[in-house]
Design goal:
The chain has three helices and five strands, in the order αββαββαβ. It is of the alpha+beta class.
Amino acid sequence: MKKLSVFILMLAFMAGCAQNQGTENAYNQESRDGTSFINNDLDRTEDNDTLDRTFSGDQNPNFINFDGKRLDNQDDINHARKVIAANEGYRPGAVWVNGEDMWVTAYRKGMMTNQEKSDAEAQLHKMLLKALPRYHIEVNVQEDRT
Protein backbone atom coordinates (compact mmCIF):
# COMPACT_ATOMS: atom_id res chain seq x y z
CA MET A 1 0.00 0.00 0.00
CA LYS A 2 2.86 2.36 0.81
CA LYS A 3 4.51 1.64 -2.54
CA LEU A 4 1.28 2.46 -4.38
CA SER A 5 0.82 5.77 -2.54
CA VAL A 6 4.47 6.75 -3.15
CA PHE A 7 4.07 5.87 -6.83
CA ILE A 8 0.91 8.00 -7.13
CA LEU A 9 2.61 10.90 -5.35
CA MET A 10 5.62 10.73 -7.68
CA LEU A 11 3.33 10.51 -10.72
CA ALA A 12 1.42 13.60 -9.59
CA PHE A 13 4.67 15.46 -8.94
CA MET A 14 6.02 14.64 -12.39
CA ALA A 15 2.74 15.61 -14.05
CA GLY A 16 2.85 18.99 -12.31
CA CYS A 17 6.41 19.63 -13.43
CA ALA A 18 5.55 18.80 -17.02
CA GLN A 19 3.03 21.66 -17.15
CA ASN A 20 5.73 24.35 -17.39
CA GLN A 21 7.53 22.95 -20.44
CA GLY A 22 5.31 24.57 -23.08
CA THR A 23 4.93 27.98 -21.45
CA GLU A 24 8.32 29.34 -22.46
CA ASN A 25 7.01 30.22 -25.90
CA ALA A 26 3.91 31.92 -24.47
CA TYR A 27 5.96 34.97 -23.44
CA ASN A 28 8.50 37.03 -25.33
CA GLN A 29 11.65 36.09 -23.51
CA GLU A 30 15.05 37.65 -23.89
CA SER A 31 18.13 35.85 -22.69
CA ARG A 32 21.17 37.70 -21.36
CA ASP A 33 24.12 35.85 -19.95
CA GLY A 34 22.09 32.73 -19.29
CA THR A 35 19.33 34.63 -17.44
CA SER A 36 15.83 34.74 -18.91
CA PHE A 37 13.83 37.94 -18.82
CA ILE A 38 10.19 38.37 -19.80
CA ASN A 39 9.59 41.18 -22.26
CA ASN A 40 6.20 42.71 -21.42
CA ASP A 41 6.71 46.00 -23.26
CA LEU A 42 3.70 45.35 -25.54
CA ASP A 43 4.94 47.65 -28.34
CA ARG A 44 4.81 50.84 -26.27
CA THR A 45 6.85 53.76 -27.44
CA GLU A 46 8.43 56.34 -25.20
CA ASP A 47 6.60 59.24 -26.87
CA ASN A 48 3.19 57.72 -26.10
CA ASP A 49 1.28 60.29 -24.05
CA THR A 50 -1.00 57.72 -22.39
CA LEU A 51 1.69 56.75 -19.91
CA ASP A 52 1.33 60.08 -18.05
CA ARG A 53 -2.44 59.96 -17.55
CA THR A 54 -3.98 59.16 -14.22
CA PHE A 55 -7.53 59.23 -12.97
CA SER A 56 -8.56 61.68 -10.30
CA GLY A 57 -11.74 62.60 -8.49
CA ASP A 58 -12.29 65.46 -10.95
CA GLN A 59 -12.76 63.09 -13.89
CA ASN A 60 -15.34 60.71 -12.43
CA PRO A 61 -18.02 61.75 -9.93
CA ASN A 62 -18.10 58.23 -8.47
CA PHE A 63 -14.52 58.49 -7.20
CA ILE A 64 -14.08 59.76 -3.68
CA ASN A 65 -11.96 62.88 -3.69
CA PHE A 66 -8.97 62.43 -1.36
CA ASP A 67 -7.07 65.59 -2.27
CA GLY A 68 -8.04 67.38 0.95
CA LYS A 69 -10.27 70.03 -0.63
CA ARG A 70 -13.44 68.37 0.59
CA LEU A 71 -13.52 67.86 4.33
CA ASP A 72 -17.24 67.38 4.92
CA ASN A 73 -20.24 66.06 3.03
CA GLN A 74 -22.63 68.85 3.96
CA ASP A 75 -23.17 69.83 0.31
CA ASP A 76 -24.25 66.30 -0.53
CA ILE A 77 -26.52 66.12 2.52
CA ASN A 78 -28.17 69.41 1.54
CA HIS A 79 -28.55 68.18 -2.05
CA ALA A 80 -30.23 64.96 -0.86
CA ARG A 81 -32.64 67.01 1.25
CA LYS A 82 -33.45 69.23 -1.74
CA VAL A 83 -34.20 66.19 -3.90
CA ILE A 84 -36.62 64.85 -1.26
CA ALA A 85 -38.26 68.25 -0.72
CA ALA A 86 -38.75 68.63 -4.49
CA ASN A 87 -41.12 65.63 -4.43
CA GLU A 88 -44.57 66.70 -3.38
CA GLY A 89 -45.85 64.93 -0.29
CA TYR A 90 -42.42 64.17 1.16
CA ARG A 91 -40.52 65.91 3.92
CA PRO A 92 -36.78 65.26 4.41
CA GLY A 93 -35.65 63.76 7.69
CA ALA A 94 -32.24 62.65 8.93
CA VAL A 95 -29.47 62.18 6.37
CA TRP A 96 -26.30 60.41 7.45
CA VAL A 97 -23.10 59.90 5.44
CA ASN A 98 -20.33 57.48 6.34
CA GLY A 99 -17.70 57.18 3.63
CA GLU A 100 -19.50 56.05 0.52
CA ASP A 101 -22.72 55.06 2.32
CA MET A 102 -25.67 57.42 2.76
CA TRP A 103 -28.74 56.75 4.90
CA VAL A 104 -31.76 58.91 4.14
CA THR A 105 -35.03 59.18 6.05
CA ALA A 106 -38.05 60.80 4.44
CA TYR A 107 -41.52 61.41 5.86
CA ARG A 108 -44.74 61.08 3.89
CA LYS A 109 -48.16 62.26 5.04
CA GLY A 110 -50.90 59.73 5.59
CA MET A 111 -51.07 56.04 6.26
CA MET A 112 -49.18 53.70 3.95
CA THR A 113 -49.43 50.01 3.24
CA ASN A 114 -46.23 47.99 3.00
CA GLN A 115 -46.44 48.05 -0.80
CA GLU A 116 -46.88 51.84 -0.88
CA LYS A 117 -43.95 52.24 1.50
CA SER A 118 -41.65 50.07 -0.63
CA ASP A 119 -42.78 51.87 -3.81
CA ALA A 120 -42.07 55.26 -2.21
CA GLU A 121 -38.63 54.06 -1.06
CA ALA A 122 -37.83 52.75 -4.54
CA GLN A 123 -38.93 56.02 -6.17
CA LEU A 124 -36.84 58.17 -3.81
CA HIS A 125 -33.88 55.79 -4.08
CA LYS A 126 -33.91 56.13 -7.88
CA MET A 127 -34.03 59.93 -7.70
CA LEU A 128 -31.32 60.16 -5.05
CA LEU A 129 -29.07 57.75 -6.91
CA LYS A 130 -29.44 59.86 -10.03
CA ALA A 131 -28.60 63.03 -8.10
CA LEU A 132 -25.76 61.53 -6.01
CA PRO A 133 -24.20 58.61 -7.93
CA ARG A 134 -21.09 58.36 -5.75
CA TYR A 135 -22.99 56.96 -2.75
CA HIS A 136 -24.57 53.66 -1.84
CA ILE A 137 -27.93 54.98 -0.66
CA GLU A 138 -30.38 53.37 1.77
CA VAL A 139 -33.80 55.05 1.90
CA ASN A 140 -36.32 54.74 4.72
CA VAL A 141 -39.79 56.26 4.26
CA GLN A 142 -41.87 56.76 7.40
CA GLU A 143 -45.34 58.09 8.06
CA ASP A 144 -45.41 61.77 8.96
CA ARG A 145 -47.40 62.10 12.16
CA THR A 146 -46.99 65.84 12.66
